[in-house]
Amino acid sequence: MDFTLITFICLFFYNGITYIINLLMNIVIPPIAIILLFFFLPPYLLVKYFISTTIKPVLSKNVAGKVILITGASSGIGKQLAIEYARRGACLALVARREKKLESVAHSTTLIGCQDVFIMCADVSNPEHCKLCIEETIKYYGRLDHLVNNAGIAPVSMFEYCPDVTNYVQAMDTNFWGSVYCTYNAIPHLKKSKGRIIGIASSAGWLATPRISIYSASKAAVISFYETLRVEIGNDVGITIVTPGLIESEMTQGKFLSREGRLRVDPEMRDTEISLMPIMPAKECARAIVKSACQGDDYVAQPPWIRPTLFWRVFWPEILDWCNRILLVPGPGQPETDTLSKKIFDLFPGVDRYLHPGTIHFPEHKGDAEEIFAYYH
Ligand SMILES: NC(=O)c1ccc[n+]([C@@H]2O[C@H](COP(=O)([O-])OP(=O)(O)OC[C@H]3O[C@@H](n4cnc5c(N)ncnc54)[C@H](OP(=O)(O)O)[C@@H]3O)[C@@H](O)[C@H]2O)c1
Questions:
Q1: From ligand 1's centre to the CA of 373, what distance in Å?
Q2: pLDDT attached to residue 324
Q3: pLDDT given at position 43
Q4: Which is the most buried residue in 78, 204, 231, 351, by most CB within 10 A?
Q5: In angstroms, what is the span from residue 215 Cα to ligand 1's centroid?
Q6: Percent of the chain whose predicted confidence (pLDDT) is above 90
Q7: What's the pLDDT tens digit per position in 282-298?
Protein backbone atom coordinates (compact mmCIF):
# COMPACT_ATOMS: atom_id res chain seq x y z
CA MET A 1 0.00 0.00 0.00
CA ASP A 2 1.40 3.39 -0.88
CA PHE A 3 1.72 6.24 1.62
CA THR A 4 -1.21 8.31 0.22
CA LEU A 5 -3.61 5.39 0.60
CA ILE A 6 -2.53 4.79 4.23
CA THR A 7 -3.01 8.50 5.01
CA PHE A 8 -6.47 8.43 3.42
CA ILE A 9 -7.55 5.38 5.47
CA CYS A 10 -6.21 6.92 8.72
CA LEU A 11 -8.06 10.19 8.04
CA PHE A 12 -11.24 8.28 7.21
CA PHE A 13 -11.15 6.39 10.53
CA TYR A 14 -10.14 9.45 12.52
CA ASN A 15 -12.96 11.59 11.10
CA GLY A 16 -15.37 8.69 11.42
CA ILE A 17 -14.62 8.29 15.14
CA THR A 18 -14.99 12.04 15.88
CA TYR A 19 -18.22 12.01 13.85
CA ILE A 20 -19.61 9.16 15.98
CA ILE A 21 -18.49 10.81 19.25
CA ASN A 22 -20.20 14.09 18.30
CA LEU A 23 -23.32 12.24 17.17
CA LEU A 24 -23.51 10.43 20.53
CA MET A 25 -23.02 13.71 22.42
CA ASN A 26 -25.77 15.34 20.35
CA ILE A 27 -28.10 12.54 21.45
CA VAL A 28 -27.05 12.35 25.12
CA ILE A 29 -26.26 15.94 26.21
CA PRO A 30 -29.61 17.71 25.45
CA PRO A 31 -31.77 15.29 27.57
CA ILE A 32 -29.18 15.43 30.40
CA ALA A 33 -29.34 19.25 30.29
CA ILE A 34 -33.16 19.19 30.45
CA ILE A 35 -33.21 16.64 33.31
CA LEU A 36 -30.67 18.73 35.26
CA LEU A 37 -32.77 21.85 34.65
CA PHE A 38 -35.92 20.26 36.04
CA PHE A 39 -34.45 18.33 38.98
CA PHE A 40 -31.34 20.22 39.95
CA LEU A 41 -32.42 23.85 39.41
CA PRO A 42 -35.20 24.10 42.09
CA PRO A 43 -33.06 22.80 45.03
CA TYR A 44 -30.06 24.77 43.72
CA LEU A 45 -32.06 28.02 43.71
CA LEU A 46 -33.50 27.25 47.14
CA VAL A 47 -30.05 26.67 48.70
CA LYS A 48 -28.71 29.79 46.96
CA TYR A 49 -31.60 31.86 48.26
CA PHE A 50 -31.09 30.50 51.79
CA ILE A 51 -27.37 31.31 51.74
CA SER A 52 -27.89 34.81 50.32
CA THR A 53 -30.55 35.73 52.88
CA THR A 54 -29.05 34.14 56.01
CA ILE A 55 -25.33 33.38 55.84
CA LYS A 56 -24.02 36.07 53.47
CA PRO A 57 -25.42 39.11 55.34
CA VAL A 58 -23.80 37.84 58.55
CA LEU A 59 -20.42 37.33 56.86
CA SER A 60 -20.65 40.67 55.00
CA LYS A 61 -17.31 42.53 55.04
CA ASN A 62 -16.92 45.99 56.51
CA VAL A 63 -15.27 48.43 54.08
CA ALA A 64 -14.49 51.11 56.68
CA GLY A 65 -10.85 52.11 56.15
CA LYS A 66 -10.59 49.92 53.03
CA VAL A 67 -9.21 51.42 49.80
CA ILE A 68 -11.66 51.62 46.90
CA LEU A 69 -10.78 52.76 43.38
CA ILE A 70 -13.77 53.77 41.24
CA THR A 71 -13.51 54.63 37.54
CA GLY A 72 -16.17 56.86 36.00
CA ALA A 73 -16.81 58.45 39.40
CA SER A 74 -17.70 61.91 38.08
CA SER A 75 -21.40 61.21 37.47
CA GLY A 76 -24.27 58.74 37.53
CA ILE A 77 -23.74 55.31 39.07
CA GLY A 78 -20.02 55.92 39.73
CA LYS A 79 -20.74 59.09 41.69
CA GLN A 80 -23.37 57.34 43.81
CA LEU A 81 -21.02 54.39 44.38
CA ALA A 82 -18.41 56.83 45.71
CA ILE A 83 -21.01 58.33 48.05
CA GLU A 84 -22.16 54.89 49.25
CA TYR A 85 -18.60 53.69 49.93
CA ALA A 86 -17.92 57.01 51.71
CA ARG A 87 -21.03 56.50 53.87
CA ARG A 88 -19.49 53.20 54.94
CA GLY A 89 -16.21 54.93 55.89
CA ALA A 90 -13.98 53.76 53.02
CA CYS A 91 -10.93 55.58 51.58
CA LEU A 92 -11.48 56.53 47.94
CA ALA A 93 -9.51 56.97 44.74
CA LEU A 94 -11.80 58.49 42.12
CA VAL A 95 -11.07 58.40 38.38
CA ALA A 96 -12.69 60.16 35.39
CA ARG A 97 -11.78 62.75 32.77
CA ARG A 98 -13.68 65.82 34.08
CA GLU A 99 -11.72 67.33 36.95
CA LYS A 100 -14.36 69.77 38.25
CA LYS A 101 -17.01 67.07 38.44
CA LEU A 102 -14.58 64.77 40.27
CA GLU A 103 -13.70 67.54 42.73
CA SER A 104 -17.37 68.09 43.48
CA VAL A 105 -17.96 64.34 44.04
CA ALA A 106 -14.85 64.16 46.27
CA HIS A 107 -16.16 67.12 48.27
CA SER A 108 -19.54 65.42 48.77
CA THR A 109 -17.85 62.23 49.99
CA THR A 110 -15.80 64.07 52.62
CA LEU A 111 -19.01 65.56 54.02
CA ILE A 112 -20.51 62.13 54.70
CA GLY A 113 -17.74 60.23 56.39
CA CYS A 114 -15.12 59.36 53.79
CA GLN A 115 -11.83 58.70 55.62
CA ASP A 116 -9.70 60.01 52.76
CA VAL A 117 -10.23 60.74 49.08
CA PHE A 118 -8.11 61.71 46.13
CA ILE A 119 -8.98 62.21 42.49
CA MET A 120 -7.18 61.31 39.27
CA CYS A 121 -8.04 62.73 35.87
CA ALA A 122 -7.52 59.87 33.47
CA ASP A 123 -8.89 58.29 30.34
CA VAL A 124 -9.41 54.56 30.93
CA SER A 125 -9.19 53.79 27.22
CA ASN A 126 -5.48 54.64 27.55
CA PRO A 127 -3.50 51.68 29.01
CA GLU A 128 -0.83 54.01 30.45
CA HIS A 129 -3.44 56.07 32.31
CA CYS A 130 -4.91 52.90 33.85
CA LYS A 131 -1.47 51.72 34.97
CA LEU A 132 -0.77 55.13 36.50
CA CYS A 133 -4.12 55.19 38.34
CA ILE A 134 -3.35 51.90 40.07
CA GLU A 135 0.26 52.94 40.82
CA GLU A 136 -0.84 56.30 42.25
CA THR A 137 -3.43 54.61 44.45
CA ILE A 138 -0.82 52.21 45.82
CA LYS A 139 1.64 55.07 46.32
CA TYR A 140 -0.97 57.08 48.22
CA TYR A 141 -2.68 54.39 50.31
CA GLY A 142 -0.25 51.47 50.12
CA ARG A 143 -3.02 48.99 49.28
CA LEU A 144 -6.13 48.37 47.16
CA ASP A 145 -9.22 46.47 48.34
CA HIS A 146 -11.94 47.07 45.75
CA LEU A 147 -11.51 48.01 42.11
CA VAL A 148 -14.79 49.27 40.64
CA ASN A 149 -14.63 49.32 36.84
CA ASN A 150 -17.57 51.56 36.05
CA ALA A 151 -16.46 54.05 33.35
CA GLY A 152 -18.50 53.65 30.20
CA ILE A 153 -20.03 55.31 27.16
CA ALA A 154 -22.95 54.26 24.97
CA PRO A 155 -22.97 54.60 21.18
CA VAL A 156 -26.61 54.82 20.08
CA SER A 157 -27.52 54.53 16.41
CA MET A 158 -28.78 51.92 13.96
CA PHE A 159 -25.61 50.09 12.96
CA GLU A 160 -25.99 50.58 9.22
CA TYR A 161 -26.64 54.34 9.58
CA CYS A 162 -23.12 54.89 10.99
CA PRO A 163 -20.99 56.69 8.35
CA ASP A 164 -17.72 55.27 9.71
CA VAL A 165 -17.79 52.28 12.01
CA THR A 166 -14.39 53.17 13.49
CA ASN A 167 -16.21 56.05 15.26
CA TYR A 168 -17.38 53.40 17.71
CA VAL A 169 -13.98 51.93 18.53
CA GLN A 170 -13.78 54.25 21.56
CA ALA A 171 -16.81 52.47 23.08
CA MET A 172 -15.02 49.12 23.10
CA ASP A 173 -11.80 50.85 24.25
CA THR A 174 -13.57 52.44 27.22
CA ASN A 175 -16.16 49.84 28.24
CA PHE A 176 -14.15 46.67 27.63
CA TRP A 177 -10.46 47.51 27.36
CA GLY A 178 -10.70 50.17 30.08
CA SER A 179 -11.90 47.46 32.48
CA VAL A 180 -9.26 45.02 31.26
CA TYR A 181 -6.33 47.49 31.63
CA CYS A 182 -7.33 48.48 35.18
CA THR A 183 -7.95 44.86 36.18
CA TYR A 184 -4.60 43.71 34.79
CA ASN A 185 -2.65 46.29 36.78
CA ALA A 186 -4.70 45.84 39.95
CA ILE A 187 -4.61 42.03 40.26
CA PRO A 188 -1.25 41.75 42.15
CA HIS A 189 -2.46 44.29 44.73
CA LEU A 190 -5.92 42.75 45.03
CA LYS A 191 -4.33 39.34 45.59
CA LYS A 192 -2.37 40.77 48.51
CA SER A 193 -5.47 42.29 50.11
CA LYS A 194 -7.78 39.36 49.17
CA GLY A 195 -9.77 42.10 47.50
CA ARG A 196 -12.58 42.31 44.98
CA ILE A 197 -13.27 43.56 41.46
CA ILE A 198 -16.68 45.05 40.76
CA GLY A 199 -17.30 45.05 37.00
CA ILE A 200 -20.18 47.24 35.87
CA ALA A 201 -21.54 45.50 32.78
CA SER A 202 -25.18 45.81 31.65
CA SER A 203 -28.31 43.79 31.01
CA ALA A 204 -27.73 44.98 27.43
CA GLY A 205 -25.05 42.25 27.44
CA TRP A 206 -27.86 39.74 26.81
CA LEU A 207 -30.85 41.86 25.72
CA ALA A 208 -30.61 42.49 21.99
CA THR A 209 -31.88 46.08 21.85
CA PRO A 210 -31.72 47.95 18.52
CA ARG A 211 -29.33 50.92 18.14
CA ILE A 212 -26.93 49.74 20.85
CA SER A 213 -25.26 46.81 19.08
CA ILE A 214 -21.69 47.96 19.82
CA TYR A 215 -22.56 48.90 23.41
CA SER A 216 -24.21 45.49 23.96
CA ALA A 217 -21.22 43.71 22.44
CA SER A 218 -18.83 45.62 24.74
CA LYS A 219 -20.90 44.70 27.80
CA ALA A 220 -21.23 41.04 26.73
CA ALA A 221 -17.44 41.06 26.42
CA VAL A 222 -17.12 42.48 29.95
CA ILE A 223 -19.39 39.75 31.36
CA SER A 224 -17.54 37.00 29.53
CA PHE A 225 -14.14 38.40 30.50
CA TYR A 226 -14.96 38.51 34.21
CA GLU A 227 -16.66 35.11 34.22
CA THR A 228 -13.55 33.54 32.71
CA LEU A 229 -11.22 35.50 34.99
CA ARG A 230 -13.24 34.32 37.99
CA VAL A 231 -12.49 30.72 37.05
CA GLU A 232 -8.78 31.62 36.83
CA ILE A 233 -8.33 33.74 39.97
CA GLY A 234 -11.58 33.36 41.92
CA ASN A 235 -9.85 31.85 44.95
CA ASP A 236 -7.63 34.90 45.42
CA VAL A 237 -9.72 37.81 44.18
CA GLY A 238 -13.51 38.04 44.30
CA ILE A 239 -15.38 39.26 41.24
CA THR A 240 -18.85 40.81 41.33
CA ILE A 241 -20.44 41.28 37.92
CA VAL A 242 -23.09 43.99 37.92
CA THR A 243 -25.80 44.04 35.25
CA PRO A 244 -27.92 47.16 35.65
CA GLY A 245 -31.11 47.77 33.72
CA LEU A 246 -32.03 51.44 33.34
CA ILE A 247 -30.46 53.66 35.99
CA GLU A 248 -30.63 57.42 36.54
CA SER A 249 -27.42 58.96 35.14
CA GLU A 250 -26.09 61.20 32.40
CA MET A 251 -26.51 58.22 30.08
CA THR A 252 -30.24 58.05 30.76
CA GLN A 253 -30.39 61.84 30.34
CA GLY A 254 -29.56 60.99 26.74
CA LYS A 255 -25.77 61.49 26.72
CA PHE A 256 -24.77 59.11 23.95
CA LEU A 257 -21.90 58.65 21.52
CA SER A 258 -23.35 59.84 18.23
CA ARG A 259 -22.77 58.03 14.95
CA GLU A 260 -20.20 60.77 14.19
CA GLY A 261 -18.22 59.55 17.23
CA ARG A 262 -18.95 62.52 19.53
CA LEU A 263 -20.67 62.57 22.93
CA ARG A 264 -23.89 64.53 22.62
CA VAL A 265 -27.18 64.85 24.48
CA ASP A 266 -30.21 63.55 22.65
CA PRO A 267 -33.32 63.37 24.85
CA GLU A 268 -35.48 62.40 21.86
CA MET A 269 -33.32 59.36 21.18
CA ARG A 270 -33.41 58.61 24.93
CA ASP A 271 -37.23 58.65 24.86
CA THR A 272 -37.23 56.37 21.81
CA GLU A 273 -34.87 53.88 23.41
CA ILE A 274 -36.33 53.93 26.93
CA SER A 275 -39.96 54.83 26.21
CA LEU A 276 -42.10 53.91 29.25
CA MET A 277 -39.55 51.56 30.85
CA PRO A 278 -38.96 52.57 34.48
CA ILE A 279 -35.60 54.08 35.46
CA MET A 280 -34.14 53.21 38.86
CA PRO A 281 -32.65 55.98 41.06
CA ALA A 282 -28.83 55.76 41.00
CA LYS A 283 -28.60 56.02 44.79
CA GLU A 284 -30.69 52.87 45.33
CA CYS A 285 -28.73 51.04 42.65
CA ALA A 286 -25.38 52.01 44.21
CA ARG A 287 -26.52 50.86 47.67
CA ALA A 288 -27.48 47.46 46.30
CA ILE A 289 -24.18 47.12 44.41
CA VAL A 290 -22.00 47.95 47.44
CA LYS A 291 -24.08 45.68 49.70
CA SER A 292 -23.63 42.79 47.26
CA ALA A 293 -19.90 43.48 46.84
CA CYS A 294 -19.44 43.44 50.62
CA GLN A 295 -21.39 40.16 50.84
CA GLY A 296 -19.16 38.65 48.16
CA ASP A 297 -21.92 38.07 45.60
CA ASP A 298 -20.86 36.87 42.15
CA TYR A 299 -23.68 38.68 40.34
CA VAL A 300 -25.90 41.68 41.02
CA ALA A 301 -28.76 42.74 38.78
CA GLN A 302 -30.42 46.09 39.48
CA PRO A 303 -33.35 46.51 39.52
CA PRO A 304 -33.65 42.80 40.46
CA TRP A 305 -36.51 42.18 37.98
CA ILE A 306 -34.03 42.62 35.11
CA ARG A 307 -32.34 39.28 35.94
CA PRO A 308 -35.19 36.99 34.72
CA THR A 309 -34.96 38.63 31.28
CA LEU A 310 -31.82 36.50 30.90
CA PHE A 311 -34.09 33.42 30.96
CA TRP A 312 -36.26 34.99 28.25
CA ARG A 313 -33.12 35.38 26.13
CA VAL A 314 -32.26 31.70 26.67
CA PHE A 315 -35.72 30.15 26.32
CA TRP A 316 -37.60 32.30 23.78
CA PRO A 317 -35.07 34.48 21.94
CA GLU A 318 -37.22 34.71 18.79
CA ILE A 319 -40.15 36.26 20.69
CA LEU A 320 -37.85 38.74 22.41
CA ASP A 321 -36.26 39.72 19.09
CA TRP A 322 -39.69 40.06 17.48
CA CYS A 323 -40.96 42.37 20.27
CA ASN A 324 -37.83 44.53 20.08
CA ARG A 325 -38.12 44.75 16.30
CA ILE A 326 -41.80 45.77 16.43
CA LEU A 327 -41.25 48.32 19.20
CA LEU A 328 -37.85 49.80 18.49
CA VAL A 329 -37.01 49.55 14.80
CA PRO A 330 -38.22 52.39 12.50
CA GLY A 331 -39.97 51.58 9.23
CA PRO A 332 -37.87 51.55 6.05
CA GLY A 333 -36.62 55.04 5.17
CA GLN A 334 -38.07 56.50 8.41
CA PRO A 335 -36.03 58.63 10.89
CA GLU A 336 -34.41 56.64 13.70
CA THR A 337 -36.79 58.04 16.31
CA ASP A 338 -39.92 57.17 14.34
CA THR A 339 -40.66 53.96 16.23
CA LEU A 340 -43.68 52.41 17.93
CA SER A 341 -41.93 52.81 21.32
CA LYS A 342 -41.67 56.59 20.80
CA LYS A 343 -45.30 56.78 19.61
CA ILE A 344 -46.41 54.93 22.77
CA PHE A 345 -44.26 57.28 24.85
CA ASP A 346 -45.87 60.35 23.21
CA LEU A 347 -49.36 58.90 23.80
CA PHE A 348 -48.95 59.24 27.56
CA PRO A 349 -47.62 62.72 28.25
CA GLY A 350 -46.70 63.16 31.88
CA VAL A 351 -46.70 59.43 32.73
CA ASP A 352 -42.92 59.35 32.48
CA ARG A 353 -42.87 61.65 35.53
CA TYR A 354 -43.87 58.59 37.59
CA LEU A 355 -41.53 56.18 35.81
CA HIS A 356 -38.39 58.30 35.45
CA PRO A 357 -36.56 60.37 38.08
CA GLY A 358 -36.88 64.12 37.40
CA THR A 359 -33.10 64.46 37.08
CA ILE A 360 -33.00 62.64 33.75
CA HIS A 361 -35.02 65.45 32.16
CA PHE A 362 -32.10 67.86 32.29
CA PRO A 363 -31.12 69.37 29.95
CA GLU A 364 -34.55 70.13 28.53
CA HIS A 365 -33.16 72.57 25.99
CA LYS A 366 -31.72 70.31 23.38
CA GLY A 367 -30.58 73.20 21.20
CA ASP A 368 -28.84 75.18 23.94
CA ALA A 369 -25.33 73.89 23.37
CA GLU A 370 -23.68 76.29 25.84
CA GLU A 371 -25.91 75.27 28.72
CA ILE A 372 -25.39 71.61 27.95
CA PHE A 373 -21.62 72.08 27.74
CA ALA A 374 -21.54 74.03 31.02
CA TYR A 375 -23.57 71.31 32.72
CA TYR A 376 -21.44 68.44 31.53
CA HIS A 377 -18.02 70.08 32.06
N1 LIG B 1 -27.42 54.25 33.28
C2 LIG B 1 -27.83 53.07 32.85
O3 LIG B 1 -29.03 52.87 32.58
C4 LIG B 1 -26.85 51.94 32.74
C5 LIG B 1 -27.34 50.66 32.49
C6 LIG B 1 -26.45 49.61 32.39
C7 LIG B 1 -25.10 49.82 32.55
N8 LIG B 1 -24.64 51.07 32.78
C9 LIG B 1 -23.20 51.25 32.94
O10 LIG B 1 -22.92 51.96 34.11
C11 LIG B 1 -21.66 52.62 33.99
C12 LIG B 1 -21.80 54.05 34.46
O13 LIG B 1 -22.60 54.77 33.55
P14 LIG B 1 -23.72 55.82 34.00
O15 LIG B 1 -25.01 55.25 33.61
O16 LIG B 1 -23.49 56.22 35.40
O17 LIG B 1 -23.44 57.00 32.96
P18 LIG B 1 -22.69 58.38 33.15
O19 LIG B 1 -23.38 59.23 34.13
O20 LIG B 1 -22.52 58.89 31.76
O21 LIG B 1 -21.27 57.98 33.74
C22 LIG B 1 -20.22 57.48 32.96
C23 LIG B 1 -18.93 57.73 33.69
O24 LIG B 1 -17.87 57.17 32.95
C25 LIG B 1 -16.84 58.15 32.83
N26 LIG B 1 -16.10 57.92 31.60
C27 LIG B 1 -16.58 57.82 30.35
N28 LIG B 1 -15.58 57.62 29.50
C29 LIG B 1 -14.44 57.59 30.23
C30 LIG B 1 -13.06 57.43 29.90
N31 LIG B 1 -12.64 57.23 28.65
N32 LIG B 1 -12.16 57.47 30.92
C33 LIG B 1 -12.56 57.69 32.19
N34 LIG B 1 -13.83 57.83 32.56
C35 LIG B 1 -14.75 57.81 31.57
C36 LIG B 1 -17.58 59.48 32.83
O37 LIG B 1 -16.74 60.52 33.31
P38 LIG B 1 -15.96 61.59 32.41
O39 LIG B 1 -16.85 61.96 31.27
O40 LIG B 1 -15.72 62.72 33.37
O41 LIG B 1 -14.70 60.95 31.99
C42 LIG B 1 -18.65 59.21 33.86
O43 LIG B 1 -18.15 59.43 35.16
C44 LIG B 1 -21.27 52.50 32.52
O45 LIG B 1 -20.32 51.48 32.38
C46 LIG B 1 -22.57 52.10 31.85
O47 LIG B 1 -22.35 51.39 30.67
C48 LIG B 1 -25.48 52.15 32.88
A1: 17
A2: 95
A3: 95
A4: 78
A5: 12
A6: 85
A7: 999 999 999 999 999 99
* C-alpha closest to that of 151 among 212, 111, 199, 223: 199
**Cα distances (Å, whole numbers) of residue 65 to 68, 110, 115, 198, 304:** 9, 13, 7, 18, 29
**β-pairing verdict for 67-71 and 91-96:** parallel
pLDDT score of 366 more than 60: no
Residue 76 in contact with ligand 1 by CB distance below 6 A:
yes
Which residue is closest in CA terms to ligand 1's atom 43? 72
Q: Where are the beta strands (DSSP E) in 180-333?
A: 196-200, 238-244, 255-257, 263-265, 299-302
Q: Would the CB of 63 count as within 6 Å of ligand 1? A: no
**pLDDT at residue 5, as a whole number:** 78
C-alpha distances (whole Å) from 20 to each of 6, 24, 29, 31 are 21, 6, 14, 18
Vertex 359, ends 300 and 377: CA angle to 5°?
95
Q: What is the whole-number distance in angstroms between the Cα of residue 149 and the centre of ligand 1? A: 10
125 lines ligand 1 (CB under 6 A): yes
pTM of the shown model: 0.93
- Give the domain ranges of the chain: 3-39, 64-364
* pLDDT attached to residue 374: 62
C-alpha to C-alpha distance for 242 and 202, rounded to whole angstroms:
7
pLDDT in tens, 27-75: 999 999 999 999 999 999 999 999 999 999 999 999 999 999 999 999 9
**pLDDT value, residue 142:** 98
- Residue 298 is classified by DSSP as S
Mean pLDDT to the nearest integer, 297-302? 97
What 3-state DSSP class applies to 187?
A: helix
Q: At what angle do helices 340-347 and 267-274 cross, to 10 degrees?
A: 100
User: Does ligand 1 lie within 6 Å of residue 124's CB atom?
Assistant: yes
Spatial neighbors of 148 by CB under 8 A, at least 6 apart, are 68, 69, 70, 71, 78, 81, 197, 198, 200
* 3-state SS, residue 158: coil
For the CA of 250, the nearest atom of ligand 1: 19
Q: What residues are annotated to the active site?
A: 215
Q: At the topology level of CATH, where does 64-364 sit? A: Rossmann fold (3.40.50)
Atom of ligand 1 nearest to the CA of 126: 31
